[in-house]
Amino acid sequence: DTGVSQNPRHKITKRGQNVTFRCDPISEHNRLYWYRQTLGQGPEFLTYFQNEAQLEKSRLLSDRFSAERPKGSFSTLEIQRTEQGDSAMYLCASSPAYDRENQPQHFGDGTRLSIL
Amino acid sequence: AQTVTQSQPEMSVQEAETVTLSCTYDTSESDYYLFWYKQPPSRQMILVIRQEAYKQQNATENRFSVNFQKAAKSFSLKISDSQLGDAAMYFCAYRSAVGKLTFGKGITLSVRP
């Protein structure tokens, strides 16, 4: 069973630059989630997809953030004009889309973003 | 909006002893799910145990069990026979019938040999 894969593992960039992260979910999972985790805190929800449709976006997802999931497979999260406050671990998770089931979300290793 | 509160930032337990991690939540929904996740340092978050709100029976997974008190909106995790490998950050999480997880701030568990 191949788990959730995230690339890159680490990204260091200068303030103002654009960055893009990729997430490959578990192959049979059609729900995909993005979370942001700052040091010593729990993950905070950003957005989620069912297949290629983006079903919910958090208020944390400012207009500098955009997420896509073309063809309902992998997903990308782009941050434009990065700011110091964007420094965090970005986690991706996936789950099967069985409503009213206790299906857990499976997490990737995350991408750690550091803004210089 | 749902909230999850983990009021203890840190706990310590002696190897082979039992420890209980506390979690409370707030919701107006009747159908939801609760989870405990474990996040070792610099490692992937993994599921420890899950509980469906409609089930009265407390979930158990080997050395891990929960005390689910729906009326009190409490969901504590008990780890029996603690092992060194249990040292990690533990997050309590809430999920509606469908969709996103809402996490608490987490608790750092250390295990003393």
Keywords:
heterodimer; A: 116 residues; mainly beta; four-stranded antiparallel sheet; 11 strands; 0% helix; B: mainly beta; six-stranded mixed sheet; 12 strands
What would you say this structure looks like, in words?
The complex is a heterodimer of chains A (116) and B (113). By secondary structure, chain A is an all-beta fold. Chain A is 0% helix and 48% strand. Chain A has strands at 5-7, 10-13, 19-24, 31-37, 44-50, 53-57, 65-68, 75-79, 88-95, 106-107, 111-115. In chain B, 0% of the residues lie in helices and 54% in strands. Chain B has no helices and twelve strands. In chain B, a hairpin with a 4-residue loop joins strand 8 (64-69) and strand 9. In chain B, the strands form three sheets. In chain B, strands 2, 5, 6, 10, 11 and 12 form a six-stranded mixed β-sheet that branches. Chain B has 113 residues and is an all-beta fold. Classes of the chains: A mainly beta (116), B mainly beta (113). The interface between A and B is medium-sized, with 24 and 25 residues.
Shape of chain A: globular
For the biggest sheet of chain B, the summary is: 6 strands, mixed
Task: Calculate Rg of chain B over CA atoms.
Answer: 13 Å
Assign a percent range to the helix content of chain A. Answer: under 10%
What is the helix fraction of residues of chain B, given as a range?
under 10%
- The counted number of beta strands of chain B is 12
Q: Which two protein chains have the largest interface (Cβ within 8 Å of the partner's Cβ), and how many residues from each?
A: A-B, 24 and 25 residues
Spans of chain A of 5+ residues with little confidence (pLDDT < 50)? none
Round the Cα radius of gyration of chain A to an integer and report it. 14 Å
Structural class of chain A: mainly beta
Mean of residue pLDDT values of chain A: 92
Strand content of chain A: over 45%
Low-confidence stretches of chain B: none
Mean pLDDT of chain B: 94
Helical run tally of chain A: 0
Shape of chain B: globular
Largest sheet of chain A: 7 strands, mixed
The oligomerization state is heterodimer
Q: Helices and strands of chain B: which structural class?
A: mainly beta
